[in-house]
Each structure stands twice: as C-alpha cells, then as structure tokens.
Amino acid sequence: MPFRIVDYSETTPSLYLRQPWQSLNLGFIKLNLISIHQWQKKSIMGFVKKIKLLSIPFLVLFLFFCSCSIFKTTYNVTKGTVKTTYKVTKGTVKTAYKVTEGTVKTTYKVTKFAGKTVYQIGEYTFTVIMAPLSWPLMHEDIESIDDLPPKDAIRQGRVKRSPYVVRGKRYVPMSVKEASKYRQKGIASWYGYETRRQKGGHMTANGEAFDPNGLNAAHKYLPLPTYVRVTNLENNRHIILRVNDRGPFVQGRIIDLSAGAAKRLGFYDKGTARVLVETIELKG
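Above: the chain's sequence. Below: its structure in token form.
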C-alpha cells in the first residue's frame, strides 16, 4: 500500500486542526488524569486523618497504662544499723552513758493480782500499779513522747524507748541491746518526796503509779522499764531498782532515785552521791 507524506506546513488551517473525536479523547484523558489526581489526594488526606484519629486512642491508652504501671527500683542492701534523724527545736541531747561488756544476771518471780503485778527479784519486791490517766506526770515538763501528747503515748503503750521532748530538747533512749550492757559511774540524786503533801497520786513516764517509798528510779536513756543495780561508791551499799520514769534533767546527774531508795543507799540527807549503775539481766 502506497504511503502519503503530508507536509502540514503547506496545508490549510482546517487540515492542521485535529478531528473533533481526537479533541474529545484528549479532553477525556485530561479530565480522567485530574480526577485520578484529586482522588489520590483525597485518599491520602483521608488516610492521614484516619492515622491521626487512630493515634489518639493509642496515645491515651499508652498514657493510662504508664500511669497505672508499677515502677520497681533495685536497692543495694548492706549490713548495718539504719539511722533516723529527727527534727529538733533547740538541739538533740547526746547520750553521755558508757556501755561495757558484761551484765548482772539474776532470777525473778512475777505474781499478778487484781490491778497490780508483783515482781520478786532476790530479796527485793516490786509492786507495779498502773496509774489513772487523770493523775499528773511526775515531770510535767515532758512535752511529748513519740511525737504524741505524753498521756496519748502512755495510753497507746508507746513509751518503752520512744524519743521524748523536755523543754524543747529531744532525748533519744538507747536500744534494748545497748541497755543490756549499760554500766556507768556518776552522780545520783533523789526526787518525789514532795508528792506526799499533794492530794491524789502521780504517774511516771510509762504510766505507773509513783511510790516515793518504792524501789524505783528515773533515767534519761534506759528503756522503760529496766532493772538496774545501783551501788553507792561512798559506802559500798547496793540496791536493785526498777527504772520507770524519765530524768533527772539536771546537768551532771545520771539517775534519780525515789526517797525510799536514797534512804537505803544512805544519801537521803546528803541529797546526792557518787554511784555505779548497771543493768541486770532477768532470768526466770
């Protein structure tokens, strides 16, 4: 079949133009391309919106689980004693006691009656009676015990070795283990005889009824109660006492005795004496 070569530069303008069906096809293709482009754009935007909408619940769930999670931390534990610091108004009173090896050991017997308990330690008899909470304390300048009002602490039984505050100073009693080896020389005094002239009774710092003629004593740092042997170094007399109160709060003195105990040790009239105080270990 012969071929015809046409030079469009020589043809009339009508021949240079495309046929109508060709223009329609080109327009349709262009419209289709535009439609496809717009559909792709809408699809992408819709997909992005869906991702954004879906990411919000996942973000909320992630934050929820993080807030409800339990975070664990590993600690290195070493042997030793845990020490606690206290907030002090006018300073913490440091202990001035001496702890040495060896304790006095003895046997004892306990008998309980209605409203009282009797301890028999060798030749010494201790009658313990709990005082009514309406009675005043022997040392009314005790401001708090274990950060509680004194009588609240006594009622809850939180007095044995709890820190206490006197005139703005916090005293921290020794532990039971430290007390078991306690031995100290110093000045003893006596207190409480004046309560005989007052109406009603008085209670000690651990809630017991104070007996001015009893075998009891007061100490700043020993747990309440603790039994001690007190020896008068000036005449070598000795006696076993039950420490059930706090004091003395006079500089230079290590223990306060009842008037009855001071008489038995021979320094009632003098008022003070140099003594040796040793805790005793009860067995029975």
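The longest strand covers residues 272-283.
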